[in-house]
Design a protein that fits this description.
single chain, alpha/beta, TIM Barrel, two-stranded antiparallel ribbon, globular, Aldo/keto reductase, NAD(P)_OxRdtase_dom_sf
């Protein structure tokens, strides 16, 4: 495996002092398609490569029969304790979509934080996201509950995932008006075949307020790795159905063609190019990508060092428009 430890670069999330790797390791597979041993191997390899930003959620992986949610947090917490490296890892987790406590009422936010702290075995969550906006709950209640967690020292910084432009702007305005904790990042669904889920009003609010974007589905459920091709047959993966749907969209094959062209010219894999394109987008700080095995990490990590030329970015932009 290529050694990336010489790359000590970090990016700062929004107006916070959180300095994180330009590639965030997604923990959704831990306790799902990766058991504890596999998860530890991935985490070890990521950390050895200089990575320090791990993303999880309280509801991962509640969709697996027999699981209740929190399995990913538990795996990460066990790993942190066994490696003794808590201070060197920025842990991001989320609240609001656990099947036993959906929504963002203040009581749910506080309960979720407390339970995540226990599973992770840590005293403070570095970055705490609202997992999905809850329009039934006023932003005043949500932000106030999050601010209390910050003041209590249980959360370092707050962020929002799956939120619309208007609600984000309203939340930020309330924080500013009342002098409360303020979102420093958003986690949108965003990639080469899903640009409208972020670009436009939401990206505008993020840019205008000095926030950072940490996109999920950065590789479109694996589609942008190039594993899924027209007439290529079935790929054995838990995400195959989600990834294959992009083949039915007009831009899907066009994006693969553009990725192949750039990847061949650069001597890298399509996934590396897809992540490098995303990292080059305005406001994007650290795309999220996950790996079931340590062997899947090198092309993801390689994106950190790949700087695409203007003509390469333009080619990808046109194919994904």
């Amino acid at each position: 495996m290529t050694d990336y430890r010489t790359d000590a670069r970090r990016v700062t999330l929004g107006t916070s002092d959180l300095a994180v790797s330009p590639l965030c390791l997604g923990g959704n597979v831990f306790g799902w398609t990766a058991d504890e041993a596999q998860s530890f191997a991935v985490l070890d390899a990521y950390a050895a490569a200089g990575g320090n930003f791990v993303d999880t959620a309280d509801m991962y992986s509640s969709w697996v029969p027999g699981n209740t949610g929190g399995e990913s947090e538990t795996v990460i917490g066990t790993w942190l304790r066994s490696r003794g490296n808590r201070d060197g890892v920025v842990i991001a987790t989320k609240v609001g979509m656990h099947p036993d406590a959906p929504g963002l009422r203040a009581s749910n936010i506080k309960r979720g934080a407390e339970e995540s702290l226990v599973r992770l075995g840590i005293e403070r969550i570095d970055l705490f996201y609202t997992h999905r906006d809850d329009p039934a709950t006023p932003v005043e209640e949500i932000v106030t509950a999050l601010d209390e967690l910050v003041r209590e020292g249980k959360v370092r910084e707050i962020a929002a995932s799956n939120i619309g432009a208007d609600r984000l702007a309203e939340s930020l305005a309330f924080s500013d008006r009342e002098g409360l904790a303020r979102y420093v990042a958003v986690q949108p669904h965003y990639n080469l075949v899903s640009r409208g889920t972020y670009e436009g009003p939401l990206a505008g609010v993020v840019a205008a307020n000095g926030l950072s974007a940490v996109p999920y589905y950065a590789l479109a459920s694996g589609f942008l790795t190039g594993k899924y091709r027209p007439g290529g047959g079935e790929v054995p993966s838990a995400r195959a159905q989600g990834a294959a749907r992009y083949l039915a969209e007009p831009r899907g094959p066009l994006v693969l063609e553009a990725l192949d062209k750039v990847a061949a010219a650069r001597g890298v894999e399509p996934a590396t190019v897809a992540l490098a394109w995303l990292a080059a987008r305005p406001t994007v700080a650290s795309p999220i990508a996950s790996a079931r095995t340590a062997e899947q990490l090198p092309p993801l990590l390689a994106a950190i060092d790949l700087r695409l030329a203007e003509e390469e970015l333009a080619l990808l932009d046109a194919a994904s428009a």
